[in-house]
Design brief:
Layout lengths: L8 E3 L4 H4 L5 E3 L22 E7 L7 E6 H14 L7 E3 L9 H4 L1 H5 L3 E3 L9 H10 L4 E5 H8 L11 E5 L1
Parallel strand pairs: 1-2, 5-6, 7-8
Antiparallel strand pairs: 3-4
Helix pairs in contact: 5-6
Length: 171
């Protein structure tokens, strides 16, 4: 009824009771997700099937579930790749925390282009100077930055040989 793969769903253990009535559950904070499936899933993914559910506070400050569907994610990923001119020679970043829900716009467009995604040590993203130096040393060409960090990076001096040519800004 929710339009997702009924072979299994991956959730945190505390959320398992909410979906076990619909389909089998693999918990992310358990060990089941690390095991190879007993049988391969051979089901075509439809545009309306869920890719995941993320939670946002939006403008209310109260968490709200947002169902992200494959078709919408596919279109967004494709558009980001094309509009940002990502190719297999691009070098991108994954700076957002894994639970933040930005992977569709930060990493997937790069990966679909066959590009590399670089992940810095967590401390690097705490300082505009450290992040600038890391972006330069890793020869990053594409990145996604939160507006506040972007504003801090904008005022720094950058070396002439900077490979960075595409900065997407998340508000």
């Amino acid at each position: 009824p929710l339009g997702f793969d009924t072979e299994h769903v991956m959730v945190m253990y505390a959320h398992a009771p909410a979906v076990t009535v619909i389909c089998p559950v693999l918990t992310l904070d358990g060990s089941g997700w690390q095991e190879a499936p007993a049988t391969l899933v051979n089901t075509e993914v439809e545009a309306d099937d869920l890719i995941h559910i993320c939670y946002t506070s939006g403008s209310t400050g109260r968490p709200k579930a947002v169902m992200v569907r494959h078709g919408a994610a596919r279109n967004l990923i494709y558009s980001m790749r094309v509009l940002s001119d990502m190719t297999s020679r691009s070098r991108g970043t994954w700076l957002a925390a894994p639970g933040y829900g930005m992977v569709e716009v930060e990493c997937f467009p790069l990966l679909t282009a066959g590009a590399e995604v670089h992940i810095p040590e967590p401390s690097v993203v705490t300082s505009p100077e450290w992040l600038r130096d890391w972006l330069v040393s890793e020869e990053i060409t594409h990145t996604l930055l939160m507006k506040a960090m972007c504003e801090r990076l904008w005022v720094l001096d950058w070396p002439a040989h900077t490979a960075l040519r595409n900065v997407r800004i998340a508000m």
